[in-house]
Structures are given as structure tokens and as C-alpha cells.
């Protein structure tokens, strides 16, 4: 099972909002203007005309197939590895006992030992053959996966913070990093491109999921089906800090070593990175803390090259292969 959230727009458009987007939401402060807005929106036709069905339809057609694909690829890879290991181990034992049975049979004919051992070994060989066949059938049965229909657990009306500020008559905040959105977008795009290229160079299949707001920017699948959840942070080369949101911290803690923070430093057309870091966070932020500043220096001190970073699933695959 997997819990995911779906965002619905007034125009009927649905999109994935990740695994825990609701953790970034806050209840609005008591305000008559906001209260009136909420009551007005609750009576809107797009909300009262079956949004449950729209969300479930999107989950069935988009989220569930992706989840099933991820599980199937993961299962197929490890079942194949298990079958190879079981076949090798039991086949070697069958060959060993068969050889010993032949030697015992020859020794009996030559009168060097009493009969019995050869019969015992041949019986063990037959039992191992049955065991090998049964184990292969059990492993094959693990490949039969079926997706259950998604279920709606809860729904909430979400007001964009910009709309809330507009209703209250507040000015939008500005900061140094968002002062030039064009430059910021360029840096972010170059950073994502660098990560995608690095993942492809490793033989992985990266996918840009930044628009889905699921807590990271690139989902990269290894040849074995293992998922690497990569949050890309692109900054100007002279930057000293990186902003990590509370939701990104939560996702990092939830995904543990599957979560990779990729730092890319951009200086005009020159790109330094990506630098991959894991295990940067050990606890959630305070409830009233929307983000945290992490120094570039601390990230680089813990960072490794992309080919030196492995998720737990990749570690297990390497152990099975060995």
C-alpha cells in the first residue's frame, strides 16, 4: 500500500501532489475575510460536483499503474537474483551428492564398503530436485502482482498563500534568491540536466518529477528497479547556503538512504557537480519552521560522486550478485 495525494484545480485538472504534501499546509488564522472566502468556495460547483470521482479516476489511471510498475520491476529483479542463487546452491549440492553416490556405488561393487550409502545419497539427490522445483515455483508465484482499486481517505480545501495574502491585502514577500526568477529558473534547469546526465551515465533511467511536487525532483530507476529519490539544489557558484523545505526534510527522513540531495553549482555556463549527499537530516523541523538553511560547505564535506552513492536496495542487489 502507498498513501499519495492528488491536487484538483477548479478547471478539473488533476495532478499528483506526492506522498505528504498535506504536511506543508497550515490552517488559516481566524479572519472574517478568509472565513467568507472558504464558505464561498465550499459552494462552488467544481467542489460539489463529484471531486471524489475525479481524484479516484486520476489515481486509477496515473498513480496506481506507476506504483505497480515500480513494485513489479523491483520484484522481478530480486526474484531473478534469488532464483539464480537458489539454482546455483542446490545444483551444486545435487552434483556433489550424485558424484558421491557414484563413488559409493563403485566402492560397493569393489567390496570396499557395505551398501547403503549410495542409496541414501541418491534419495537425497531426488529430494533436492523436488525441493529445487518447488522453490522455483514459489519464487515465480511472487511475480504475480495485482493492483487494488484506490480508496479515498480524506479531502481538504487548500487555499494558495498568494490568494490568502491578496484577500487580506498583504504584500507578497521578496528575498534575494527569488529576486531574479529568470536567472533562478536557468540555474535550476541546468542543475536538473546535470543530474539527469549523471544518472544516465550510470545506466539508470531518470525522470524529471519536479512539477509533481512529491518531495524530490528526479526519480531515477536503476537496472535492478531500485528507486533513487534525488532532490536537486542548483545554486550560483558563489552561494553559501541552500534552502531545504520542511516537506523535503520529512521526505528525506521517510525515504532514508533512498533520498539523495544533489548539489549543483553554476557559474555562467560552467557546471560543478552534481555532488550527492545522503543522511543530512536526523529530525523534523519545528512546526512553525517552514524551511532550513544548509551551508554549501557542509553538503560538500559529506558529498560523493554519483557513482559512489548507493541506496539500500542497490546495496542488497550488490550483495545478492556477489
What can be said about this structure in brief?
This protein has 322 residues and is α+β, with helices and mostly antiparallel strands. It has helices at 32-42, 45-48, 51-109, 117-141, 161-168, 181-201, 246-255, 296-302, 312-321; strands at residues 6-8, 14-16, 205-208, 218-221, 227-236, 241-245, 259-267, 270-277, 291-295.
**Strand order of the biggest β-sheet:** 3-4-5-7-8
Strand content: 15-25%
Instruction: Tell me the radius of gyration.
Output: 28 Å
Largest sheet: 5 strands, mixed
Number of helices: 9
Helix content: 40-55%
H/E topology pattern: EEHHHHHHEEEEHEEEHH
Give an overview in words.
- This protein is α+β, with helices and mostly antiparallel strands and 322 residues long.
- Helix content is 48%, strand content 16%.
- It contains nine helices and nine strands.
- Strands 3-4-5-7-8 form a five-stranded mixed sheet, sandwiched between helices. The protein has a two-stranded antiparallel sheet with strand order 1-2.
- Helix 3 runs antiparallel to helix 4.
- The longest helix is centred in the N-terminal third of the chain and has 59 residues, at 51-109.
- It is elongated and about 105 Å long.
- 19% of the residues are buried.
Write the layout of secondary structure elements.
Blueprint lengths: L5 E3 L5 E3 L15 H11 L2 H4 L2 H59 L7 H25 L19 H8 L12 H21 L3 E4 L9 E4 L5 E10 L4 E5 H10 L3 E9 L2 E8 L13 E5 H7 L9 H10 L1
Parallel strand pairs: 5-7
Antiparallel strand pairs: 1-2, 3-4, 4-5, 6-9, 7-8
Amino acid at each position: 500500500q502507498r498513501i499519495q495525494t492528488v491536487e484538483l484545480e477548479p478547471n478539473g485538472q488533476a495532478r499528483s501532489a506526492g506522498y505528504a504534501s498535506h504536511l506543508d499546509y497550515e490552517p488559516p488564522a481566524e479572519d472574517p475575510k478568509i472565513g467568507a472566502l472558504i464558505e464561498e468556495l465550499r459552494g462552488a460547483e467544481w467542489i460539489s460536483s463529484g471531486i471524489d470521482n475525479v481524484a479516484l479516476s486520476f489515481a486509477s489511471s496515473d498513480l496506481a499503474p506507476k506504483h505497480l510498475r515500480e513494485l513489479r520491476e523491483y520484484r522481478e529483479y530480486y526474484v531473478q537474483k534469488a532464483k539464480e542463487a537458489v539454482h546455483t546452491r542446490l545444483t551444486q549440492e545435487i552434483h556433489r551428492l550424485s558424484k558421491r553416490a557414484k563413488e559409493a556405488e563403485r566402492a560397493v561393487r569393489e567390496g570396499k564398503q557395505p551398501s547403503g550409502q549410495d542409496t541414501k545419497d541418491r534419495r537425497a539427490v531426488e529430494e533436492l530436485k523436488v525441493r529445487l522445483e518447488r522453490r522455483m515455483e514459489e519464487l515465480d508465484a511472487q511475480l504475480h502482482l495485482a493492483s487494488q482499486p484506490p480508496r479515498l481517505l480524506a479531502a481538504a480545501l487548500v487555499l494558495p498563500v498568494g490568494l490568502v495574502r491578496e484577500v487580506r491585502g498583504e504584500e507578497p514577500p521578496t528575498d534575494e534568491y527569488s529576486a531574479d526568477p529568470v536567472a533562478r529558473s536557468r540555474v535550476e534547469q541546468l542543475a536538473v540536466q546535470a543530474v539527469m546526465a549523471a544518472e544516465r551515465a550510470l545506466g539508470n533511467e531518470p525522470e524529471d518529477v519536479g512539477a509533481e511536487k512529491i518531495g524530490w525532483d528526479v526519480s531515477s530507476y536503476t537496472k535492478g528497479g531500485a528507486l533513487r529519490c534525488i532532490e536537486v539544489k542548483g545554486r550560483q557558484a558563489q552561494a553559501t547556503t541552500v534552502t531545504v523545505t520542511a516537506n523535503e526534510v520529512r521526505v528525506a527522513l521517510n525515504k532514508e538512504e533512498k533520498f539523495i540531495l544533489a548539489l549543483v553549482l553554476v557559474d555562467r555556463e560552467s557546471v560543478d557537480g552534481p555532488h550527492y549527499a545522503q543522511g543530512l537530516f536526523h529530525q523534523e523541523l519545528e512546526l512553525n519552521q517552514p524551511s532550513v538553511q544548509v551551508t554549501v560547505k557542509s553538503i560538500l564535506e559529506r558529498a560523493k560522486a554519483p557513482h559512489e552513492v548507493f541506496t539500500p536496495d542497490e546495496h542488497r542487489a550488490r550483495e545478492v550478485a556477489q
